[in-house]
Amino acid sequence: MLLCISLETSERLAAGPSLPRDGQVAAAADAQQAPRPYRPSIGQAGKDVVWVPTPPALLDTMLSLAGVTPEDVVVDLGSGDGRAVIAAARLGARAIGVEFNPELVTLSRQAAADAGMQDRASFVQGDMFEADISQATVFALYLLPENLDRLLPRLQSLRPGTRIVANTFGFTDWDPDAQERVRAELCTDWCDALLWIVPARVAGSWVFDSGERLVLTQLHQVLHGEWQSGSSSEPIRQARVRGTAVAFSVGERRFEGDWSELALTGVERLRDGSTRRFRATRQP
Ligand SMILES: C[S@@+](CC[C@H](N)C(=O)[O-])C[C@H]1O[C@@H](n2cnc3c(N)ncnc32)[C@H](O)[C@@H]1O
After folding, report:
1. Nearest CA to ligand 1 atom 23
2. How far is the CA of 228 from the centre of ligand 1 (A)?
Protein backbone atom coordinates (compact mmCIF):
# COMPACT_ATOMS: atom_id res chain seq x y z
CA MET A 1 0.00 0.00 0.00
CA LEU A 2 2.75 2.39 1.04
CA LEU A 3 4.63 1.37 -2.08
CA CYS A 4 1.63 2.16 -4.36
CA ILE A 5 1.23 5.59 -2.81
CA SER A 6 4.89 6.43 -3.22
CA LEU A 7 4.94 5.25 -6.85
CA GLU A 8 1.84 7.30 -7.66
CA THR A 9 3.26 10.31 -5.87
CA SER A 10 6.58 10.05 -7.63
CA GLU A 11 4.83 9.76 -11.02
CA ARG A 12 2.84 12.92 -10.31
CA LEU A 13 5.91 14.73 -9.09
CA ALA A 14 7.81 13.55 -12.17
CA ALA A 15 5.08 14.91 -14.47
CA GLY A 16 5.83 18.40 -13.17
CA PRO A 17 3.36 21.18 -12.43
CA SER A 18 0.29 21.48 -14.65
CA LEU A 19 -2.45 24.12 -14.76
CA PRO A 20 -5.88 22.97 -13.58
CA ARG A 21 -8.61 22.69 -16.20
CA ASP A 22 -12.06 24.41 -15.74
CA GLY A 23 -13.76 21.27 -14.38
CA GLN A 24 -10.99 20.80 -11.84
CA VAL A 25 -11.36 24.39 -10.63
CA ALA A 26 -15.14 23.91 -10.13
CA ALA A 27 -14.61 20.60 -8.32
CA ALA A 28 -12.05 22.17 -6.00
CA ALA A 29 -14.43 25.07 -5.22
CA ASP A 30 -17.29 22.60 -4.51
CA ALA A 31 -15.04 20.62 -2.21
CA GLN A 32 -14.18 23.80 -0.30
CA GLN A 33 -17.88 24.71 0.09
CA ALA A 34 -19.20 21.20 0.90
CA PRO A 35 -19.98 21.05 4.63
CA ARG A 36 -17.76 18.66 6.53
CA PRO A 37 -19.70 15.74 8.06
CA TYR A 38 -20.47 16.51 11.71
CA ARG A 39 -18.25 14.57 14.12
CA PRO A 40 -19.06 14.94 17.83
CA SER A 41 -16.13 14.84 20.21
CA ILE A 42 -16.19 12.89 23.44
CA GLY A 43 -16.76 15.20 26.39
CA GLN A 44 -18.29 17.99 24.31
CA ALA A 45 -20.73 20.20 26.18
CA GLY A 46 -24.42 19.39 26.24
CA LYS A 47 -27.32 21.29 27.75
CA ASP A 48 -27.32 19.50 31.13
CA VAL A 49 -24.64 16.85 30.62
CA VAL A 50 -21.75 16.32 28.21
CA TRP A 51 -21.75 13.78 25.39
CA VAL A 52 -19.92 10.55 26.13
CA PRO A 53 -21.08 7.47 24.22
CA THR A 54 -21.94 4.19 25.92
CA PRO A 55 -19.60 1.37 24.78
CA PRO A 56 -21.42 -1.24 22.64
CA ALA A 57 -20.76 -4.12 25.08
CA LEU A 58 -22.34 -2.15 27.91
CA LEU A 59 -25.33 -1.22 25.73
CA ASP A 60 -25.92 -4.92 25.02
CA THR A 61 -25.74 -5.67 28.75
CA MET A 62 -28.11 -2.81 29.62
CA LEU A 63 -30.73 -3.87 27.07
CA SER A 64 -30.43 -7.50 28.09
CA LEU A 65 -30.75 -6.60 31.81
CA ALA A 66 -33.93 -4.68 30.94
CA GLY A 67 -35.19 -7.71 28.99
CA VAL A 68 -36.10 -5.62 25.94
CA THR A 69 -38.53 -7.35 23.56
CA PRO A 70 -40.36 -6.28 20.38
CA GLU A 71 -43.32 -5.33 22.64
CA ASP A 72 -41.31 -2.53 24.27
CA VAL A 73 -41.07 1.17 23.65
CA VAL A 74 -37.52 2.09 24.62
CA VAL A 75 -36.65 5.73 25.30
CA ASP A 76 -33.17 7.23 25.66
CA LEU A 77 -33.21 10.69 27.24
CA GLY A 78 -30.09 12.44 25.99
CA SER A 79 -29.63 10.04 23.11
CA GLY A 80 -26.30 11.36 21.78
CA ASP A 81 -25.39 9.76 18.46
CA GLY A 82 -28.41 7.45 18.68
CA ARG A 83 -26.56 4.22 19.43
CA ALA A 84 -28.82 3.02 22.29
CA VAL A 85 -31.95 3.75 20.27
CA ILE A 86 -30.61 1.91 17.23
CA ALA A 87 -29.48 -1.05 19.38
CA ALA A 88 -32.98 -1.30 20.91
CA ALA A 89 -34.56 -1.08 17.45
CA ARG A 90 -32.35 -3.95 16.32
CA LEU A 91 -33.99 -6.03 19.08
CA GLY A 92 -37.36 -5.32 17.47
CA ALA A 93 -38.51 -2.64 19.93
CA ARG A 94 -39.87 0.76 18.95
CA ALA A 95 -37.21 3.14 20.18
CA ILE A 96 -37.16 6.89 20.61
CA GLY A 97 -34.27 9.21 21.39
CA VAL A 98 -34.63 12.68 22.84
CA GLU A 99 -31.57 14.84 22.25
CA PHE A 100 -31.10 18.58 22.72
CA ASN A 101 -28.24 18.99 20.24
CA PRO A 102 -29.76 19.24 16.72
CA GLU A 103 -26.55 18.10 15.03
CA LEU A 104 -26.55 14.90 17.09
CA VAL A 105 -30.20 14.37 16.13
CA THR A 106 -29.36 14.67 12.41
CA LEU A 107 -26.41 12.32 12.89
CA SER A 108 -28.64 9.82 14.74
CA ARG A 109 -31.31 9.84 12.04
CA GLN A 110 -28.64 9.18 9.42
CA ALA A 111 -27.15 6.36 11.52
CA ALA A 112 -30.60 4.82 11.95
CA ALA A 113 -31.18 4.97 8.19
CA ASP A 114 -27.71 3.49 7.52
CA ALA A 115 -28.59 0.62 9.87
CA GLY A 116 -31.97 0.12 8.13
CA MET A 117 -33.71 0.91 11.45
CA GLN A 118 -35.44 4.16 10.48
CA ASP A 119 -38.93 2.61 10.82
CA ARG A 120 -38.42 1.67 14.46
CA ALA A 121 -35.83 4.21 15.62
CA SER A 122 -36.90 7.84 15.79
CA PHE A 123 -35.41 10.96 17.30
CA VAL A 124 -36.93 14.07 18.82
CA GLN A 125 -34.92 17.25 19.16
CA GLY A 126 -35.74 18.78 22.52
CA ASP A 127 -35.21 18.98 26.24
CA MET A 128 -35.42 15.63 28.00
CA PHE A 129 -37.04 17.27 31.02
CA GLU A 130 -39.98 18.36 28.91
CA ALA A 131 -40.32 15.32 26.64
CA ASP A 132 -43.47 13.22 26.55
CA ILE A 133 -42.33 9.93 28.09
CA SER A 134 -45.74 8.43 28.75
CA GLN A 135 -45.39 5.67 26.10
CA ALA A 136 -42.10 4.29 27.38
CA THR A 137 -41.88 0.80 28.85
CA VAL A 138 -38.06 0.90 29.11
CA PHE A 139 -35.58 3.74 29.58
CA ALA A 140 -31.95 3.32 28.55
CA LEU A 141 -30.04 6.22 30.10
CA TYR A 142 -26.54 7.57 30.48
CA LEU A 143 -26.90 10.64 32.66
CA LEU A 144 -25.52 12.09 35.88
CA PRO A 145 -27.15 11.43 39.27
CA GLU A 146 -28.36 15.04 39.39
CA ASN A 147 -30.13 14.57 36.02
CA LEU A 148 -31.61 11.25 37.15
CA ASP A 149 -32.83 12.73 40.45
CA ARG A 150 -34.59 15.50 38.52
CA LEU A 151 -36.30 12.90 36.32
CA LEU A 152 -37.18 10.62 39.26
CA PRO A 153 -40.70 11.93 40.09
CA ARG A 154 -41.78 11.58 36.46
CA LEU A 155 -40.20 8.14 36.07
CA GLN A 156 -41.78 6.84 39.26
CA SER A 157 -45.22 8.08 38.23
CA LEU A 158 -45.14 5.78 35.18
CA ARG A 159 -46.87 2.41 35.04
CA PRO A 160 -45.48 -0.01 37.67
CA GLY A 161 -43.16 -2.47 35.98
CA THR A 162 -41.56 0.16 33.72
CA ARG A 163 -37.84 -0.68 33.56
CA ILE A 164 -35.01 1.83 33.73
CA VAL A 165 -31.49 0.77 32.81
CA ALA A 166 -28.55 3.09 33.13
CA ASN A 167 -24.88 3.26 32.39
CA THR A 168 -22.95 3.33 35.71
CA PHE A 169 -24.60 6.36 37.36
CA GLY A 170 -27.72 5.96 39.47
CA PHE A 171 -30.22 7.88 41.55
CA THR A 172 -29.03 9.37 44.84
CA ASP A 173 -31.48 7.52 47.08
CA TRP A 174 -32.97 4.74 44.94
CA ASP A 175 -30.87 1.56 44.91
CA PRO A 176 -30.99 -0.55 41.77
CA ASP A 177 -33.00 -3.79 41.69
CA ALA A 178 -30.15 -5.47 39.80
CA GLN A 179 -26.79 -4.66 38.29
CA GLU A 180 -24.23 -6.30 36.05
CA ARG A 181 -20.63 -5.43 35.21
CA VAL A 182 -19.30 -5.88 31.69
CA ARG A 183 -16.21 -8.09 31.53
CA ALA A 184 -12.94 -6.12 31.68
CA GLU A 185 -11.76 -7.31 28.25
CA LEU A 186 -14.87 -5.75 26.65
CA CYS A 187 -15.05 -2.52 28.64
CA THR A 188 -12.48 -0.35 30.41
CA ASP A 189 -14.41 2.64 31.82
CA TRP A 190 -18.02 3.07 32.94
CA CYS A 191 -18.84 -0.64 32.72
CA ASP A 192 -21.82 -1.12 35.06
CA ALA A 193 -25.37 -1.68 33.88
CA LEU A 194 -27.96 -0.78 36.55
CA LEU A 195 -31.63 -1.75 36.53
CA TRP A 196 -34.59 -0.26 38.40
CA ILE A 197 -38.18 -1.40 38.11
CA VAL A 198 -40.83 1.21 38.84
CA PRO A 199 -42.62 -0.14 41.92
CA ALA A 200 -46.36 -0.17 42.46
CA ARG A 201 -47.39 2.17 45.24
CA VAL A 202 -48.53 -0.27 47.87
CA ALA A 203 -48.11 1.77 51.06
CA GLY A 204 -51.23 1.86 53.21
CA SER A 205 -53.58 -0.46 54.95
CA TRP A 206 -54.74 -3.76 53.44
CA VAL A 207 -57.49 -6.07 54.69
CA PHE A 208 -57.21 -9.76 53.78
CA ASP A 209 -60.10 -12.15 53.15
CA SER A 210 -59.00 -13.94 56.33
CA GLY A 211 -59.80 -10.75 58.28
CA GLU A 212 -56.11 -10.14 58.98
CA ARG A 213 -54.60 -6.75 58.20
CA LEU A 214 -51.33 -5.46 56.81
CA VAL A 215 -50.13 -1.88 57.24
CA LEU A 216 -47.32 -1.12 54.79
CA THR A 217 -44.80 1.69 54.52
CA GLN A 218 -42.69 1.95 51.40
CA LEU A 219 -39.45 3.53 50.24
CA HIS A 220 -39.13 2.70 46.54
CA GLN A 221 -38.91 -1.14 46.34
CA VAL A 222 -38.31 -1.64 50.07
CA LEU A 223 -41.33 -2.41 52.24
CA HIS A 224 -41.81 -2.42 55.98
CA GLY A 225 -45.03 -3.41 57.61
CA GLU A 226 -47.03 -4.62 60.53
CA TRP A 227 -49.17 -7.76 60.30
CA GLN A 228 -52.25 -7.60 62.51
CA SER A 229 -54.13 -10.77 63.40
CA GLY A 230 -56.81 -10.42 66.07
CA SER A 231 -55.24 -8.52 68.91
CA SER A 232 -51.64 -9.50 68.08
CA SER A 233 -49.30 -7.83 65.64
CA GLU A 234 -45.80 -8.49 64.34
CA PRO A 235 -43.46 -6.96 61.78
CA ILE A 236 -43.28 -8.54 58.34
CA ARG A 237 -39.90 -9.74 57.02
CA GLN A 238 -38.15 -10.16 53.64
CA ALA A 239 -40.61 -7.76 52.08
CA ARG A 240 -40.22 -6.10 48.73
CA VAL A 241 -42.11 -4.90 45.70
CA ARG A 242 -40.71 -5.47 42.23
CA GLY A 243 -42.93 -3.78 39.68
CA THR A 244 -46.34 -5.17 40.60
CA ALA A 245 -44.99 -8.28 42.37
CA VAL A 246 -45.26 -8.04 46.16
CA ALA A 247 -43.73 -10.53 48.60
CA PHE A 248 -43.32 -10.74 52.36
CA SER A 249 -43.10 -13.21 55.22
CA VAL A 250 -45.05 -13.34 58.48
CA GLY A 251 -43.83 -15.89 60.99
CA GLU A 252 -43.47 -19.03 58.87
CA ARG A 253 -45.99 -17.93 56.27
CA ARG A 254 -44.83 -16.55 52.94
CA PHE A 255 -47.04 -14.32 50.77
CA GLU A 256 -46.33 -13.74 47.09
CA GLY A 257 -48.84 -11.73 45.14
CA ASP A 258 -49.55 -9.26 42.44
CA TRP A 259 -50.77 -5.71 42.91
CA SER A 260 -53.53 -4.14 40.82
CA GLU A 261 -55.52 -0.94 41.27
CA LEU A 262 -58.28 -3.09 42.80
CA ALA A 263 -56.56 -5.63 45.00
CA LEU A 264 -53.52 -7.59 46.05
CA THR A 265 -53.94 -11.23 45.04
CA GLY A 266 -51.65 -14.21 45.17
CA VAL A 267 -50.57 -17.34 46.95
CA GLU A 268 -49.77 -17.88 50.60
CA ARG A 269 -47.38 -20.69 51.49
CA LEU A 270 -48.06 -22.12 54.93
CA ARG A 271 -45.72 -23.63 57.50
CA ASP A 272 -46.47 -27.22 56.35
CA GLY A 273 -45.67 -26.34 52.71
CA SER A 274 -49.29 -26.25 51.56
CA THR A 275 -50.57 -23.22 49.66
CA ARG A 276 -53.78 -21.24 49.43
CA ARG A 277 -54.85 -18.19 47.51
CA PHE A 278 -55.23 -14.82 49.21
CA ARG A 279 -56.89 -11.57 48.29
CA ALA A 280 -56.59 -8.23 50.04
CA THR A 281 -58.17 -4.87 49.39
CA ARG A 282 -56.90 -1.47 50.36
CA GLN A 283 -58.61 0.35 53.19
CA PRO A 284 -59.16 4.03 52.50
C1 LIG B 1 -23.59 11.07 28.41
S2 LIG B 1 -24.33 11.42 26.85
C3 LIG B 1 -25.19 9.89 26.55
C4 LIG B 1 -25.45 9.59 25.09
C5 LIG B 1 -26.18 8.28 24.81
N6 LIG B 1 -27.36 8.15 25.65
C7 LIG B 1 -25.29 7.10 25.02
O8 LIG B 1 -25.51 6.34 26.00
O9 LIG B 1 -24.38 6.89 24.21
C10 LIG B 1 -25.64 12.56 27.31
C11 LIG B 1 -26.35 13.23 26.16
O12 LIG B 1 -27.39 14.05 26.70
C13 LIG B 1 -27.55 15.20 25.88
N14 LIG B 1 -28.24 16.23 26.69
C15 LIG B 1 -27.74 17.01 27.68
N16 LIG B 1 -28.71 17.75 28.25
C17 LIG B 1 -29.87 17.43 27.60
C18 LIG B 1 -31.22 17.86 27.73
N19 LIG B 1 -31.61 18.73 28.67
N20 LIG B 1 -32.15 17.32 26.92
C21 LIG B 1 -31.79 16.40 25.96
N22 LIG B 1 -30.52 15.98 25.78
C23 LIG B 1 -29.56 16.47 26.60
C24 LIG B 1 -26.12 15.54 25.50
O25 LIG B 1 -26.10 16.35 24.34
C26 LIG B 1 -25.52 14.15 25.29
O27 LIG B 1 -25.65 13.75 23.95
Report:
1. 78
2. 49
